[in-house]
Predict the 3D structure of the following.
Amino acid sequence: MKILIVYGSLEGQTSKIAHFMKEILLDDNHDVILANVTNNPLPADKFDVILIGSSIHLNSYNPSIKKYVKNNIEELNKKITGFYSVSMAIASNLPEKHQEVNQLTQQFLTDTGWETNRIWHIEGALKFTKYDYLKKMMMRSIAQKEFGPININKDYEYTDWEKVKNHLSQFSSRLKTRLHEQA
Ligand SMILES: Cc1cc2nc3c(=O)[nH]c(=O)nc-3n(C[C@H](O)[C@H](O)[C@H](O)COP(=O)(O)O)c2cc1C
């Protein structure tokens, strides 16, 4: 199938995940186009399947992703779609943090009118080497409470790649069954 993956990423983790997803789908013989939302991505109507990814910063999804979804809402609601949300809250052991992300996701879907029922929550990364001094201090203070001692000269990746791979492999198999049934 023709698949578009559009992503919004500030420090690169959502982009890294999009590239990883692309490889899995290519291995399964799908046609995949990857688009950074800042590079004027193609409209949704040219594709059978659209996957959209955004990280969370300061309790908000990427504004350009929100705009893309709103601009393409009619097509998105007609097609096979999925949303992958990248956050640190989902890496927490505290159930209330997971609840917060779930609420944020539901709010995003309500605000945009997007009716996707495929949502993947993916743990992100803390890229201290990319933060300015103030951000390093702020993120260390938040992260230490949850994840233990932090060295601000290092990056920490919490993404569970095996989980991402499983989600994508299952999704891809379902797409192939659908294609088979249509043939
Ligand atoms: C300034 C800043 C604010 C963040 N705010 C949140 C937040 O509100 N909730 C959360 O779960 N994660 C938050 N994160 C963690 C990011 O979602 C995580 O680092 C993610 O991997 C970023 O993905 P990206 O590199 O694709 O932008 C924040 C990270 C930074 C640097």
Residues 125-158 form one domain. The first strand starts at residue 2 and ends at 8. The pocket of flavin mononucleotide is lined by residues 9-14, 55-59, 86-89, 124-126, 135, 139 (CB under 6 Å). The chain has a mean pLDDT of 96.
